[in-house]
Design a protein that fits this description.
Shape: globular
Radius of gyration: 16 Å
Order of helices and strands: HHHHHH
Strand content: under 5%
Number of helices: 6
Distance between the termini: 50 Å
Largest sheet: none
Number of strands: 0
Structural class: mainly alpha
Helix content: 55-70%
């Protein structure tokens, strides 16, 4: 039962973030500044609001990249439903399924796995959790380049 309650509470919390950032803030900035500046500013603010004492610079940078990825996804999808689902599953699976640290918070007790992160903090994320990992930087950059390519192809984002 706790498994599903955690999913519902994560869905409510994350959807609130997405309504604010991708449902309201991004479109308002887009009208005033254009799409590229809107993505950059909303993503930086998204990264900074997640900054806490346990997060490294790389973790905050990755959260900014994550905000960029979600902004591009929302624009491509013309909806925030997909980003709500993606963000919910990301946060919920980190702690609830895999027992990982999420954004520097305490470690969760995973239902599938109770991971213990050891090794180089630059690669594992250390106390910041997977959001502080350089591997996540690479994955997010690949996702951002892919979505940017798709948006350019549909002429929804003019970068070149």
């Amino acid at each position: 039962m706790g498994f599903f309650l955690l999913l519902i509470s994560t869905l409510v919390q994350v959807s609130t973030e997405e309504i604010i950032f991708r449902g309201w803030f991004l479109p308002v900035l887009n009208v005033k500044l254009g799409v590229v500046k809107a993505i950059i500013i909303s993503s930086i603010v998204f990264g900074l609001i997640h900054a806490c004492t346990n997060l490294s610079f790389l973790a905050v940078f990755n959260l900014t990249l994550y905000g960029t990825f979600l902004a591009l996804y929302a624009i491509l999808d013309n909806s925030i439903w997909g980003v709500c689902a993606w963000h919910t599953f990301w946060n919920w699976s980190e702690r609830t399924l895999f027992g990982l640290i999420e954004n520097g918070a305490s470690k969760g007790d995973g239902f599938l796995l109770n991971a213990k992160i050891t090794g180089n903090k630059f690669l594992t994320g250390g106390e910041a959790g997977s959001n502080g990992s350089f591997f996540l930087t690479i994955i997010l950059l690949i996702g951002i380049f892919y979505l940017t390519f798709k948006l350019n192809k549909k002429e929804l984002l003019k970068l070149y």
